[in-house]
Amino acid sequence: MTIQKELKSRRQAIRELSLGAAGSMSIATMMGFAKTWGEARAAAPRTLSDADKNRRFVIVLTGSGGASIIDSFLALSESEVDRAGGNSDTTNCFADSQTVRFDDSPFRAVKVDTTIATLGGFPVKTDQSFFVKKHKDDMMVVTTLNSSVNHEASQRRVMNGNGAWDGRTIPEAVAMQYGKGLPVANLNMGAGGYGFAGVYNELPDYARQLSVTDPVYWPLGLHASAGIADIPTTDLIELARDVRDKRLEPQSNFYRTFKDSPAIGQWLNDRNQRLKEFEEVNLIEKLFFTPNKQFNLNPENQRLVEMFPNYHQDRLDAQAILGFLAITKGVSCAVTLGPSFAASGQSLKKIFNPPIAFDFSHTDHRGIQAMMWNRILVVADKLIDLLKQTEFNPATGESFWDRTMLYIASDFGRDQIRPSKTAKFFPSGHHLNNGSVILSPMVKGNTILGGIDPKTALTYGFHTETGAPAKERNTSELELYAGILHSLGIDTNGRLPDMRSFRRKS
Amino acid sequence: MHLDKLAMLGLWAGLVLASCSMKPSRKEFNSQNPGSNPPGTEQPGAGDGSGDQDPAVDNNEPGLSQKGELRFKKQSLLKADLSSALGMKPDELCEEFGKSCFDELYNLALGGVEAYQSQVTRGIEKSAVTTPIVLERLILSGCNKRAQRDVGNGDGVIFKVALDARGQLVNPDGEDVKASLDNLYKRAVQRPIEAHEIKALQGLYQSVVAKSPDQAAEKWAALSCYAVLTSLEAVFY
Predict the structure, then answer these.
(1) Alpha-carbon distance A109 to A97, whole Å?
(2) CA dihedral A224, A228, A231, A234 (to 10 degrees)
(3) What ipTM did this prediction achieve?
């Protein structure tokens, strides 16, 4: 039997759904991502189950190594530092010509044209203003003060709000609330501390994260037999499973001795129930995107491969494709992705990821921050565009983007100092003071919560309920965590402060 | 002195008898714990005692482990065990798109680590939802290769069975079949096969022949290997 015959076509599956033949399979699960608005409206009307209708999604895009907010949307110009009584010569700020301001937005952007000496003179030419112009209305910057400058500790705290809610991470909390019924509710492709699971003991199994290191080939492991050459057909494999499950195992001394083991119970549930569910919806066909001869590729995936052409050498590109497919194919509601600390590239002339990502600022702050911010913003921009183009609920006209939050998490900030105005290359250390970028139609767009003191380049906080700037306080990891979860409509049972200042509809 | 020994013996015997009378029988245990069997299965002989029990089953009940502390074999152990059981190098056993199933493709799901690219320095403790899937996938691949090499070869590593012209077993009840299955069990779970297991796998052969008669022996060998190596006994320790 060929794979093509074995796998249900999308059209067939949708037809079965309309006839009620697909049982518990959700419509969102069956939807192709690239249904444009026009195509969607022309298609037969469909309805979503209550669970699907209410889903919301989070994408955590990690600024691994320390994405500095004063090198992006809260950048300071030399003249304003001087006007405020600061010293622009030794403060990490930009020439006025490099600092872009907007009449209709409080955000800044920077333009950088330089080389990175410690990467063999690698050229960097970036301009962040495209991102502000395009996404400002769904964009919020929240000033923060982290609690650690140790990468792994800080990354973990950024994900779990420094243990804010019994140790569950943001993706775990989202998966708990919105992930029931999804095959892999919580897909984690993050590196280092971003890749750690939380420590909440009562986390339901469906919300546990699944770690992925190779997004290109990971989908192969979602079916026990599809695509393996010359093996017995699936009906014969079922015969073998039947003999194993009903005759060999129950009578074995091993099973009779250890039948009450929790590990056995978990295994049997996953093997006898979940495995079959995975195989029925054929996740390889939905998620495997690299061109090949073995699998029936979704034609829309070709568009994704063209949008992220470096996916084979640059894992961030591959993560973006897989993350997008996982959300829009009804597989996941929480996706974590981001650059790792491993260098990648084709040569010194074409580097995708510098060693230790943003943290290579230790050797050359300005060039690395510009290069890495650009890397993050380009991926964020493409993901937002794709999600906006993909229909979520035809009854309400919502796109996937209407239900999604993209959170650019950072370990911490970087030093606010530089040796002098004339220093083309300078290093920076870790600093607790920073800010985070959140993009979503669910948050108050075009807004900075808190502010920055131009004299010191240090950020300050805000009143949690009103959002009014408050120079006497800073935003903790816990408050940021609470604001993110509350904006996503997650009920934290009164355990966290009400951060209504985050929400578009407070 | 002699009396002391007798007294100790009596005390020991009394304790043994007392513990036996306190421990529920398997039948009693099952009646107190409905649903303790896997879905769709029944303990042979349970229920009405009408004699429908498989006579090949050993009725000596093993003790139920109260702690049940088991672990699934993780990447490095699986790699060694499966490679040894199937008589193949790990990458020969399973490789897809030129990548090693154990070390690259399914490393994390099998409890391995990936320090360089992703800084994953601790493997999963409990099996993930995809662990049984990837395990079945790589075992299916390895068993299929083993069966292709063994069946019809006459000098196979696991299966040494006589075939007819259509690729079916000459004698499904023959000693060559039993010896091959015994060999499979010894390599997979380090014990001799039991009579009921031979019967079950012979039954699998009949089912395979009924559905797909051509080259049935090779398919059956691959599927028997898959059934045994993916069984709980082969996966946990």
Answers:
(1) 11
(2) 40
(3) 0.85
